[in-house]
Design goal:
The complex is a heterodimer. Chain A is mainly β. Chain A has one domain: 5 Propeller (Tachylectin-2, Chain A), CATH 2.115.10. Helix content of chain A is 10%, strand content 48%. Chain A is built from 2 helices and 24 strands. Chain A has helices at residues 2-25, 32-38; strands at residues 52-56, 63-65, 73-77, 82-86, 91-98, 101-108, 114-116, 118-119, 134-137, 143-146, 155-163, 168-177, 182-190, 193-202, 205-214, 219-220, 226-228, 230-232, 244-251, 257-264, 272-282, 285-294, 296-297, 302-309. In chain A, the strands form 6 sheets. A 5-stranded mixed beta sheet of chain A has the order 8-12-11-10-9, with no helix packed on it. In chain A, strands 13, 14, 15, 16 and 17 form a 5-stranded antiparallel beta sheet that branches. In chain A, β11 and β12 (168-177) form a beta hairpin. The longest helix of chain A has 24 residues, at 2-25. Chain B is of the alpha+beta class. Chain B has one domain. Chain B is built from 4 helices and 5 strands. Chain B has helices at residues 13-21, 32-40, 75-84, 96-102, and strands spanning 2-9, 54-57, 66-73, 88-92, 106-107. Chain B has a 5-stranded antiparallel beta sheet with strand order 4-1-3-2-5. In chain B, β2 and β3 (66-73) form a beta hairpin. Chain B is globular and about 40 Å long. The interface between A and B is large, with 43 and 40 residues.
């Protein structure tokens, strides 16, 4: 029965994909990457539709790798988990920590040049065991970062205003999310709107909610649906919500939404795995995460930990 | 919510980390899946080495003479940390760079080029 429901939802999503494409093309904000994909543009490694790229958390050789059809390799080194977002000009912004200190700047896909900006992130973002977990571009060209990965209870939502000329960035806290039972795990943009995922802890276990998110008054936007995020394995079985840890979420260049998650498939082997899922929309918005593939690359030696789109 | 600057001298870092571990915010939030994720990433959830990791020194060059972290906690956790702390300086509501400057310290930074 559950599989039938999933197949029905998948059919709905496929039927509506073209409509979603059109809607995205007609959305004026922050859609340069989508337009490029729709025009058939390709970037490093070829591919095309559905371009989404992942970073290894820490590759065994110290390199980072793109995660696309070709699994092509970067030439530079990122020392710890990074969050990134595409600038639409052949480079991306990155934020990572090394020994609890933040590094922010740009990375050029073609030249491999890593540019470090001067910034004040260390004065506003949690350090220690709390690297950033989300990064997205606002239509203005500023960035929004969410800190507090790991076991932080609160998430600081931080606006970063970069200046490409001076290679300087000024960061300020927009708001702090979290109330002990609800924990903001991800922020991302979906068709021009900001969406968030909250983890809810209850005595019966934890689960995730997903919906449009207000970063200024942290919480889901009043008046819009909030869905429980349902995660499905390759076999179509629902994963117990308490056996999922959402890591990274991004809308790819073809408007599809992808997620990396650490999960336990108790219906098969009970083994833990890192997987990449596509989050499809139902009548009330994003809701169902369907397994796409394991997030292992480099012959299983590394994990595509953070996802970002690439025009 | 309270933002805390926490600082410890290098000679006391092991003991300070042990004390910090028992009062860390969110440690009771970690379910099996979160703990498994940490282990899968090569992080021992029980290890004290994960905390107070930002090395500092008067010159900003290695080796670290002090260790620092900056976290956001609730009042209850803040009080618990104050009660438990022995080798750390914990100050609330400070800007990290100003806090470190007041102690004559700079972060030790890498240059990734």
């Amino acid at each position: 029965m559950e599989k039938l429901r999933q197949q029905s939802l998948l059919a709905w999503a496929q039927a509506n994909r073209q409509a979603m494409h059109e809607a995205v093309r007609n959305t004026s904000v922050n859609q340069a990457p989508v337009a490029a994909a729709a025009a058939g543009a390709s970037g490093v490694g070829g591919g095309g539709e559905g371009r989404v790229t992942g970073l290894y958390e820490v590759a065994t050789d110290g390199n980072i790798y793109s995660y696309d059809d070709d699994q092509s390799q970067f030439t530079s080194m990122f020392p710890e988990p990074a969050v990134c977002c595409d600038r639409g000009d052949g480079s991306f912004y990155y934020v990572f920590q090394w020994n609890s200190t933040y590094y922010f700047g740009t990375f050029n896909w073609t030249t491999g040049q890593l540019t470090q900006y001067t910034h004040n992130l260390d004065d506003v973002a949690q350090s220690g065991n709390y690297p950033a977990k989300s990064l997205y571009l606002e239509p203005s060209g500023n960035l929004i970062m969410a800190d507090g990965k790991g076991n932080a209870v609160f998430t600081n939502i931080i606006r970063i205003v970069p200046n490409a000329v001076t290679e300087n960035a000024v960061a300020t806290v927009v708001a702090t999310a979290g109330n002990g039972n609800e924990y903001l795990t991800n922020l991302f943009t979906y068709n021009g709107d900001v969406w968030g995922i909250d983890e809810h802890s209850t005595t019966g276990g934890s689960y995730y909610n997903i919906g449009r998110y207000d970063i200024d008054r942290p919480g889901f936007v009043t008046g819009y649906p909030v869905n429980e995020l349902l995660v499905y394995t390759a076999a179509g079985d629902q994963v117990n919500p308490g056996n999922v840890s959402v890591i990274s979420v991004v809308q790819a260049t073809d408007s599809r939404v992808y997620m990396t998650a650490f999960y336990q498939d108790t219906t098969v082997t009970s083994q833990y795995d890192f997987g990449i899922f596509e989050i499809t929309a139902g009548n009330t918005g994003l809701q169902q995460a369907n397994f796409q593939r394991l997030a292992y690359v480099n012959n299983g030696a590394d994990i595509a930990f953070s996802l970002f789109n690439k025009s | 919510m309270i933002n805390l600057c926490i600082l410890c001298e290098d000679i006391n870092i092991t003991e300070a980390r042990k004390r910090l571990l028992s009062t860390l915010p969110g440690s009771d939030r970690l379910t099996d899946i979160h703990l498994a994720l940490k282990r899968a990433r090569g992080i021992d959830p029980e290890s004290v080495a994960n905390h107070l990791k930002a090395g500092c020194s008067p010159t900003g060059q290695a080796p670290a003479t002090h260790w620092f972290c900056y976290i956001t906690v609730d009042e209850e956790t803040h009080q618990k940390m104050l009660d438990k702390q022995l080798y750390t300086i914990i100050e609330a509501g400070r800007v990290p760079s100003e806090f470190l400057a007041d102690h004559g310290l700079k972060r030790i930074k890498a240059n990734w080029k």
